[in-house]
Amino acid sequence: MTDMSLAPSDRALVPFVSVANMLRLLNARGTESVLRDLARYIEEDYRRWPEFDKTPRIAAHSRDGVIELMPTADAEHYGFKYVNGHPRNMRHGYQTVTAFGVLASMATGYPLLLSEMTVLTALRTAATSGLVGRYLAPKGAEVMALIGCGAQCEFQALAFRALCGITRLRLYDIDPAATEKAARNLKGLGFEITICATAQSSVEGAQIITTCTADKQNATVLTDNMVGAGVHINAIGGDCPGKTELHADILRRSDIFVEYPPQTRIEGEIQQLPEDHPVIELWKVMRGEAPGRTADRQITLFDSVGFAIADFSALRFVLDAVKGTDMVEPLDLLADPDDPRDLFGMIARSAGQAA
């Protein structure tokens, strides 16, 4: 006799991590602890970089922003992230960046996890920056300039403290309200904070310079005269064609480290340079196949645009972190008929008709 129940089976249910549960996870573990864990997962996956299918993200650009899909896969899992970037959203009370992601089984194609990734993207971006800083920042660095105090700012500060030991921050944003917001959020967290009146003054004494602005244009946030010998530049604002933050002369005297060259040459700071300008792939540094920082006076530049493997790592982390907890909800996402060939029969039964 056919089971007439329309209750979803276990195979129909996909674990879902909501924003509320992502915040619970952060509060339970501590943000800096999560950043360290994320960095570990990212480093593990970068060290097995050749195992992944890789492609530049698929982008749909408009005059208002960009919507992107970021896929990758290894032999066991497939992952993708949906993410947007709309700088004008803030004028209307919307986030500049929102995201969600899926991790699925390569064996069955069934999703194993659906997760919010607005918060998680901020975390994985910061964790990646801090991880790269371990390889490229000057030894004993304590001071970081943060130029651009939007949604990513505080995450970067915490990641560089958790992973690199940064304790002093110099903050600047073209919008004083953003600078004040960042200082307010970071107050009481153990940093020594200086609010700066200009980008120029913010880099004074900084051993690490992080640039993270949102305007979708070729801007010069950091000029060549602002960058002295021996600094590490963490350039995370560039993420699409026509959007840059650094003067090209800085690039020409820096050793440039990238995630995935075919994507970075389209979207990153190096879109300003010839296609054959040499860059160093970070996965090779993490595997010991290429040098990172080699000299005290060397200028290192992480031309960060974000790559799908870091999102894959973040989803792996979340799947492991929520397993066996109540920080996940079962989502009735997949049709699961009694007979895999009889999908239409589910419709009939839902209408109260016998199949």
Automatic annotation (TrEMBL):
Domain of life: Bacteria
InterPro entries: NAD(P)-bd_dom_sf, ODC_Mu_crystall, ODC_N
One protein family per Pfam: OCD_Mu_crystall
Family matches, as NCBIfam families: PRK07589.1 (NF005762)
Name recorded for this polypeptide: Ornithine cyclodeaminase
Organism: Paenirhodobacter populi
